[in-house]
Fold this protein.
Amino acid sequence: MQQLLSILFGVAGGIAVGGGVIALIIVLDIVPRLSQLTWTYDKVHWYEGALITGSLIGTVADFWKWKVSLGPVVSTIIGLFCGVFIGMLAAALTEVLNVLPILSKRLKLTRYLFGLLMAMVAGKVAGSLFEWFIYRQ
């Protein structure tokens, strides 16, 4: 009975999280915006397929604890692609919610908006480097 409940809660949690991520991607218009920026409107199905395939492969790799030794150069390239995706997702979320303009107006930091943005970028880079080089060691 306990194993059945674990399976049920695991599937329900997966559906909830997956639905939330897909809803976020839809609300942020990531796929249409990406096709608009790259002038590839006819390739929208490729973008959608890449999102689904990447999610599926990432989930399977996480569950089955796949390990692939590709060397530092390939790992760096894959890390850059992952960083670009996360950066696009964060930028889209920030753009939709207008976080920075509202924050700068409320804190009366409008003339320091560029510095605020650079501090956020530097913090993200420093946190990523810390996690990559120190925390994982």
User: Anything to note?
Assistant: The first helix runs from residue 2 to 27. The mean pLDDT is 81.
